[in-house]
């Protein structure tokens, strides 16, 4: 039986024995094999944050951070696709009883897999996605520039603002393209296998029972800084990979220091801690390239893939305060 006690070593084993050896080929093919995500599900990782009564592992924040690090060290594309799912498990666990009953156990087991389309409605400025209610249906309109995991997910949690512009509605949508929901693959130079698409919604209708929750925009904004910690583990994972490939080096101490900073920062200092993690991943990737030598620029080398992934981590999940701190950290 899958338990939380040994979930970190189990994730490390999967990352080292399955994900990392294949990561170069996965990146070149531009697709995470379904079998890799099935292996994460079989290890209980789709239910990492889910409640135990629904078959989840109920892992605490430290355990979640350590697992994200290990998987990202193995293969950032696979880790990135999987990570989106955890937010949906939390949303459904906190959602209406009927949705919990219908979906939570399947989400925890990874029989149903999910992604998110959140930033288009929560970032500053006009909402790029709107949701209105028409009798017993919700109608979604707008464009979401980034949705990761398409083709690997059954559901996508879409955030949209209501007519008042002051509330954000979170709606579970079947991840099936059609006339009212179109997808266009994003062509990227890093996490090429993350199946990231642009989503277009044109009067897309879903049953109102698919609403997981509605939160005032002001409340979301006020709580945003406190939620910045988890994505920092993607950068730490990249540093872990570099440190393992390089062998013992001063990077080990830098990694430990940035990890402590992320773990102990109060919300108002998390943006700077995230910037420090992204900057360290960037430096570690540069170090790996330099230490590898000319072979690092051959397509398919671990060093060149890691350097491209460090580029992605300079911008992914950013916020104005992260960007400002990162620009300063990099000498701008
Ligand atoms: C490859 C890739 C895959 C991605 N996959 C997903 C995905 O699956 N689902 C998803 O929802 N997003 C996804 N994103 C979006 C990601 O979260 C954004 O990259 C991030 O919000 C910053 O993007 P940006 O700098 O382009 O700014 P934008 O997202 O265009 O936002 C504009 C500005 O608002 C700031 N901002 C953004 N969100 C907030 C917020 N909540 N509060 C305050 N300020 C904010 C940004 O820092 C930026 O300064 C993905 C991005 C990339 C590059």
CATH architecture of the largest domain: Up-down Bundle
List low-confidence stretches: none
User: H/E element string?
Assistant: HHHHHEHEEEEEEEHHHHHH
Name the helicity range.
Answer: 40-55%
Query: For the terminal residues, how far apart are their CA atoms?
Result: 51 Å
**Beta-strand residue percentage:** 15-25%
* CATH level-3 fold name of the largest domain: Butyryl-CoA Dehydrogenase, subunit A, domain 3
- Rounded to the nearest angstrom, the radius of gyration is 19 Å
Small-molecule binders:
flavin-adenine dinucleotide
Domain tally:
3
What is the CATH H-level superfamily of the largest domain?
A: Butyryl-CoA Dehydrogenase, subunit A, domain 3
Question: Structural class per helix/strand content?
Answer: alpha+beta
Could you walk me through the main structural features you see in this protein, from its secondary elements to its overall organization?
The protein is an alpha+beta fold and 332 residues long. The chain folds into 3 domains: 106 residues, Orthogonal Bundle (Butyryl-Coa Dehydrogenase, subunit A, domain 1), CATH 1.10.540.10; 103 residues, Beta Barrel (Butyryl-CoA Dehydrogenase, subunit A, domain 2); 109 residues, Butyryl-CoA Dehydrogenase, subunit A, domain 3 (Up-down Bundle). Helix content is 50%, strand content 17%. It contains 12 helices and 8 strands. It has a 4-stranded mixed beta sheet. Helix 1 packs parallel to helix 3. The termini are far apart. The structure holds flavin-adenine dinucleotide (FAD). The site of flavin-adenine dinucleotide has 23 residues, from strand 1, helix 6, strand 3 and helix 12.
